[in-house]
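Exercise 7. Predict the structure of Glyoxylase, beta-lactamase superfamily II from Alteribacillus iranensis.
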Amino acid sequence: MNWEQIPLGPLQTNCYVLYNHQREAVIFDPGGDAGVLERWLQDNEITPVAILLTHAHFDHIGAVDDIKRTYNVDVYLHKNEEDWLGDPEKNGSARFLGGSSITIDKANHLLSGETVLSVGSFQFTMYETPGHSPGSISFYHQESSTVFSGDALFFGGIGRTDLPGGDHQLLLNSIHEKLLQLPEDTVVACGHGPTTTIGNEMDSNPFLHGF
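Solution. The predicted structure, encoded as tokens:
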């Protein structure tokens, strides 16, 4: 099992492609530049089986419809952001992109709760980690010792909470009660910037000290 980090879209949001030996893949947060992502998939002979969204902000969803239609795959999203994909005000594109507002088709599957999610041959433990947004989810993939955390936790930082539905204390609670309970060698596949590990953020992330 391997994964690739591919920065896409106007904010160079990290899209992740997790793929197995059969060259099947789950795609996390295809934020834009669908052509770039499709060329990478073609060049590496990888076929997506699903799109998992950590949340529905515009910079994480820009290429969803293109990838969905090209590969005929389902989209998974937390139920608390069910109507964000089609609402430029809620997904933030109206505020940040102006005339290039983003609207996306409805998700095929709405998620909730702390559960095990099976998608094809892939299995994840799903954690609700709200705070950056109401429906933020983190997907822990034990086989690769990776958590795909979206914009909850970064290398040396945490997600912003000044957007609609953001809650700083709730985000800190999510990080401490969910993410920091994972094994310390777990790789944190962040929505922006470099990857890190749970242990590294426990030791050095200034936002998490004095909690």
